[in-house]
C-alpha cells in the first residue's frame, strides 16, 4: 500500500523540479507494475467503452484515456525546452504508465541539442490504480471547485514553471495548477497563507507518488514524433563541425517558413512508422553545432524532436 501523504518539512527548501532517484519516493514501489494485468473492453480507437471498475473510484478505461497526468511548463527557459517538454507522468485507463527519464549529464538532450526526451513505460494493475486515485482523493484533488495554490507574487520567486496535475476520476475531471511548486517554503520569503501552504504540500506529496523506481519498466518507443523546425540563428564555427543531416522526407525550408508567424517561430510535422527509430537514433547524436540540414539542402536549421504519447495524434499546440 502507498503510505498516506505527509506534509513535508516547510523549513527545508525543495527544488522546483523534483528529480527521481533510484530509490522509491514515499511508497510508490509498493504499487505492483505488472505488464498485461487488468484491462477493459476498448474500441479500436483506444477509448473506453465501460465507465470503470465495479467497486472503487470510477475512471476511464481506454488505452488512450488519460486518468492522471503530471506536467510542468513555462518559466524562464528557451523556446526549444518548451517545445520538447513532455508530461513527467501519464496514467492511462488501461493501467499503462508513461513517464520521462532524467537526461544523463552531457547527453544531447541535456545540452539542448534537439534530441527527443527519454521515456519509460510500465503497467499498473487495477488495485494499484485505485490506490493512486485514493491518494488523490485524500489529498483533496478530486474535490469540486478550484484550489488556491497562490501565485508568483505570493510565492515570492519569479520565472519559475507551473506544475499541472490533471485527473479524470469519480465525478471529477479537474486540473490543478501550482506556480513554483516546491518554492515558497522558507519562512519570511513568501506571503502564502497557511491554507495555501497545506494545499501545496498535499499536491507535492501526490506528485511524489508518481516518482521513484518503476519495477519492470522498459523504454517507451513512440509510434509518432513531432519534428519542429526553425532557421538556424548563426552559422556554425569551424570548431563546431558540420551540421548533421536530418533523415526526414519533409522539406525543412517549407516547414521553417510555415512556422515563421507562430508564437514559437517553429514549423512542425509528424513523422511516423519505420522512419521514427532512425530519426530518434540520429537526433540522439547531433553534431557539436546543434544545427541540421536536410538530405539535399545547404541551409541550416534548429530542430526539436518530441515523441507523441498515445493520446496525441498531431503536433502539440
Which characteristics define this entry?
317 residues; alpha+beta; Mago nashi protein; 2 domains; seven-stranded antiparallel sheet; three-stranded antiparallel sheet; 17% helix
- Percentage of β-strand residues: 15-25%
Q: State the end-to-end CA separation.
A: 38 Å
Q: What spatial order of strands do you see in the largest sheet?
A: 6-5-1-2-3-4-7
| Poorly predicted residue ranges | 1-46, 107-113
Let me know the average pLDDT.
78
Q: Which outline best applies? A: globular
Question: Whole-number radius of gyration?
Answer: 21 Å
**Helical content class:** 10-25%
Total tally of structural domains: 2
What does this structure look like?
It is built from six helices and twelve strands. It has two domains: 30-209, Mago nashi protein; 222-307, no CATH class. With 317 residues, the chain is of the alpha+beta class. It has helices spanning 79-84, 126-138, 152-155, 194-209, 252-258, 275-283; strands spanning 66-73, 89-92, 96-101, 118-123, 162-169, 172-179, 218-219, 224-231, 244-245, 267-272, 292-293, 301-307. The strands form three sheets. Strands 6-5-1-2-3-4-7 form a seven-stranded antiparallel sheet, with helices on one face. It has a three-stranded antiparallel sheet with strand order 10-8-12.
Amino acid at each position: 500500500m502507498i503510505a498516506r501523504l505527509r506534509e513535508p518539512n516547510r523549513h527545508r527548501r525543495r527544488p522546483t523540479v523534483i528529480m527521481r532517484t533510484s530509490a522509491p519516493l514515499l511508497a510508490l514501489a509498493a504499487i505492483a507494475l505488472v505488464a498485461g494485468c487488468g484491462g477493459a473492453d476498448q474500441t479500436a480507437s483506444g477509448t473506453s467503452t465501460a465507465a470503470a471498475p465495479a467497486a472503487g473510484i470510477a475512471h476511464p478505461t481506454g488505452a488512450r484515456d488519460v486518468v492522471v497526468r503530471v506536467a510542468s511548463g513555462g518559466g524562464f527557459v528557451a523556446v526549444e525546452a518548451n517545445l520538447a517538454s513532455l508530461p513527467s507522468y501519464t496514467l492511462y485507463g488501461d493501467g499503462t504508465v508513461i513517464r520521462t527519464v532524467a537526461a544523463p549529464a552531457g547527453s544531447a538532450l541535456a545540452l539542448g541539442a534537439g534530441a527527443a526526451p527519454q521515456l519509460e513505460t510500465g503497467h499498473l494493475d487495477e488495485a494499484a490504480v485505485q490506490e493512486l486515485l485514493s491518494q488523490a482523493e485524500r489529498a483533496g484533488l478530486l474535490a469540486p471547485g478550484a484550489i488556491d495554490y497562490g501565485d508568483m507574487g505570493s510565492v515570492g520567486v519569479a520565472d519559475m514553471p507551473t506544475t499541472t496535475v490533471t485527473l479524470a476520476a469519480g465525478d471529477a475531471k479537474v486540473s490543478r495548477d501550482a506556480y513554483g511548486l516546491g518554492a515558497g517554503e522558507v519562512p519570511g520569503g513568501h506571503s502564502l497563507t497557511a491554507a495555501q501552504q497545506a494545499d501545496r504540500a498535499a499536491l507535492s506529496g501526490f506528485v511524489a507518488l508518481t516518482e521513484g523506481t518503476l519495477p519492470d519498466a522498459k523504454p517507451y518507443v513512440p509510434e509518432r514524433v513531432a519534428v519542429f523546425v526553425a532557421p538556424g540563428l548563426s552559422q556554425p564555427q569551424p570548431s563546431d563541425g558540420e551540421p548533421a543531416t536530418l533523415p526526414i522526407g519533409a522539406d525543412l525550408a517549407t516547414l521553417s517558413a510555415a512556422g515563421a508567424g507562430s508564437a514559437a517561430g517553429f514549423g512542425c510535422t509528424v513523422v511516423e512508422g519505420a522512419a521514427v527509430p532512425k530519426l530518434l537514433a540520429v537526433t540522439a547524436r547531433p553534431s557539436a553545432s546543434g544545427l541540421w540540414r536536410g538530405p539535399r539542402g545547404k541551409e541550416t536549421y534548429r530542430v526539436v524532436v518530441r515523441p507523441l504519447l498515445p493520446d496525441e495524434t498531431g503536433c502539440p499546440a
